[in-house]
Design goal:
Length: about 160
């Protein structure tokens, strides 16, 4: 393995680079504006991303086998296994509900139950659906992924 140089800069240098290139404040643009940049020589960002990947930690469930009450005594027992009817909590699924209030197609994350009536959480709602009406899209890995639009570059900030 080659020795890769590691450098450290203050937040002031990042702020100066961002101001000199006319970039608004955002985490993604701050990551692009770190380090030594020679603005007099013409160093600048060539391209700014339109979308950024947003990753959120969702966990992988609880190891505890009981749920305690407010005094710490066991209130109920949790099942030993975390997979029920082939699905685990956090899996991304597509649900086709044939009838009832939630009729139609839905995509979301599920919370599994031993009974087979799993809870699906979509962007706008939360409801129960049978495991027979589900199709797996992505296994849970402890994270939720999505894309978000990067803030638009306005003419508010001007290069120094």
């Amino acid at each position: 393995m080659q020795d890769v140089p590691v450098h450290a800069w203050s937040g002031g240098r990042t702020h100066w680079n961002r101001f000199a290139m006319g970039l608004p404040k955002s985490h993604a643009l701050d990551a692009l504006a770190t380090g030594v940049t020679d603005h007099e020589r013409g160093d600048a960002l060539v391209r700014v991303p339109a979308q950024i990947l947003v990753v959120s930690s969702t966990g992988r469930g609880s190891y505890a086998r009981t749920t305690p009450d407010r005094f710490g005594s066991p209130r109920l027992r949790r099942p030993r296994g975390k997979v029920h009817h082939g699905y685990a909590t956090g899996d991304l699924v597509a649900a086709v509900v044939p009838g009832g209030k939630w009729v139609g197609g839905w995509v979301g994350r599920i919370a599994v139950r031993a009974s087979g009536q799993h809870r699906i959480t979509t962007l706008t709602s939360r409801f129960d659906v049978s495991h027979r009406n589900l199709r797996l899209l992505q296994r849970a890995d402890g994270y939720t992924y999505g894309f978000a639009d990067e803030i638009r570059l306005s003419g508010r900030h001007r290069p120094a």
